[in-house]
Amino acid sequence: xxQVRENLAExxxxxxxxxxxxxxxxxxxxxxxxxxxxxxxLQQELGIARNILANRLARFVDxxxxxxxxVPEDRRKIVYNLTEKGFALLPTMVAxxxxxxxxxxGSPAFPILVxxxxxxxxxxxxxxxxxxxxxxxxDLHWALPGDVEDQAARxx
Amino acid sequence: xxQVRENLAExxxxxxxxxxxxxxxxxxxxxxxxxxxxxxxLQQELGIARNILANRLARFVDxxxxxxxxVPEDRRKIVYNLTEKGFALLPTMVAxxxxxxxxxxGSPAFPILVxxxxxxxxxxxxxxxxxxxxxxxxDLHWALPGDVEDQAARxx
DNA sequence: AATCTTAGTTTCAAGTAGAAACTCGCATGT
DNA sequence: ACATGCGAGTTTCTACTTGAAACTAAGATT
Lengths: 156, 156
What we know:
Two copies of one chain form a homodimer. With 156 residues, chain A is an alpha+beta fold. The first copy, chain A, has seven helices and four strands, in the order H-H-H-H-E-E-H-H-E-E-H.
């Protein structure tokens, strides 16, 4: 992989990490993916401190990852639902979980994610080239604006 | 997506997050992907406090994400290199960055990652079915051990 | 009316992050 | 050989964050 020393701080990773860069963020997200929508459910399932959970949920709502609505049938209850933006973190979450399975816990944790159509397990999340080849260690390169347009022009 | 309330804590996400669940972990990783291998380089590039950097590097080495070696030509210098395990976090990191580009900073940050062969930008990291279809909100389901083997047997 | 639930907030102790100064082995210039 | 500088940390001390537990305030239940 090439060396690009300029501009490392200007990418969107820091922005993403400001929200997701703590121990609980992905765990709350995963619980939400799994159909937990209420404060008490989340708190008990995760074992997170109540103040921290309240703080994180508020942050998620502020940043548009979740929507907070009260339930009409029982107006004490609040429902937290993932927005499209929140759901868009699924690939990241799955990638991290798969990494953990492969390299930390030593493989297939259950439950596993399957395609609802055929019940088959999903693929490993990978970095793919434009035509779908999986890209590894030596296959990647950082490019600046000019480079990419040149290449696209040459290719197309 | 189905509801699986049992067993949420038994998956590998918490294990992965113990290592990667802080603000700096992915930034250090990314810097390493980008060819920064020395303490001072990392410290200056990231603006991280020296004690925290030292602590994180030690943890990465402990957990086998990086290898620490001293440089023969200048024995003051230490080189930190990603192991296979560390490199295996690339899809997670790229997924998170792409999410940030799409939803936080509002798109194409430079430099971008391209395939070194043809110079073309990489695909969006996605969750794919066994046959390569991208899977979205309603397409996923959590399955327990028995379910999956049944399906595989039925399909194959 | 009394009690229970849900979703928080408050309080305070303990832990972690951050900035700055310090150490220590090694290299370099003279 | 000696002074100076550098690379990779460590120490110290302050400020912020986390976490556990108790508390609160609407709204539901009996």
